[in-house]
Amino acid sequence: MRKILRTILIIAIIITIGKVAYAEPDLTTIDRLVGGQSGNYVFSLQILFLLTVLTLAPSILIMMTSFTRLIIVLSFIRNALGLQQTPPNQVIIGLALFLTFFIMAPIGSQINQEALQPYLREEIDQEVALQRALEPIREFMFRQTRDKDLALFLNIKNLDTVNNLEEVPNHVLIPAFIISELKTAFQIGFVIYVPFLVIDMVVASTLMSMGMMMLPPVIISLPFKILLFVLVDGWNLIVKSLVLGFR
After folding, report:
1. pTM
2. At residue 147, what are phi and psi to the nearest 5 degrees?
3. Residue 183: which pLDDT band, with cuts at 50, 70 and 90?
4. Any idea what the Cα angle at residue 71 is, between residues 65 and 74, rounded to 5°?
5. Contact, 134 vs 170, CB < 8 A?
6. What is the pLDDT of residues 11-51, one digit of tens each?
7. CB count, 10 Å around CB of 156?
8. By CB neighbour count within 10 A (0-12 exposed, 13-18 middle, 19+ buried), where does 70 fall?
């Protein structure tokens, strides 16, 4: 039970770090407006904000972790094989989700040690805990983000005075990280498609040379593509390459 609670708390820290990307409301101004009776109002606003962040948890999980690249590559595999519903979407999403947990486990452990546990022991306040929790996430995203993509959003925001990575704001880093992940995923998908495309071309050419133009080539090529994927232990190779690809 303690492990389950600790896991829930770690996830809660991760999904709440999204609020650091933009300016937070000044609660001291609200305190003055309500005439000193700020305790209940501040607590109510915190609960409201937490519920709002929880609704955005899926998007934060997708956009700030390895999930984007994993789900796109796994979808490419299914389409390259010519299987429309096999594996089903639930299996693809579940595999991508647990691979994300596996890849992000060291980062979650670091967040637990440096941010969550000190906060639970009341050694640091909420703001410091969120900043500490965000540091390993930012480091992970910087490692996966291309300089060209990061420079794109810096130029759009006219942030020419940024001298180091610590000065890059989160609302610039996150979209740069996303488009870098999309490009990497599509590059991997292209490499996956090539051998299966060759099989389709060979089968189609063979059927045309035999005069069997009324027979759909996919009926013949599909078993060969599945056989090739099984013989080379495709799932093992793909998962190994994906996991090791996150440096």
Report:
1. 0.72
2. -60, -35
3. very high
4. 140
5. yes
6. 445 545 444 444 444 444 444 434 444 455 566 776 776 67
7. 10
8. buried
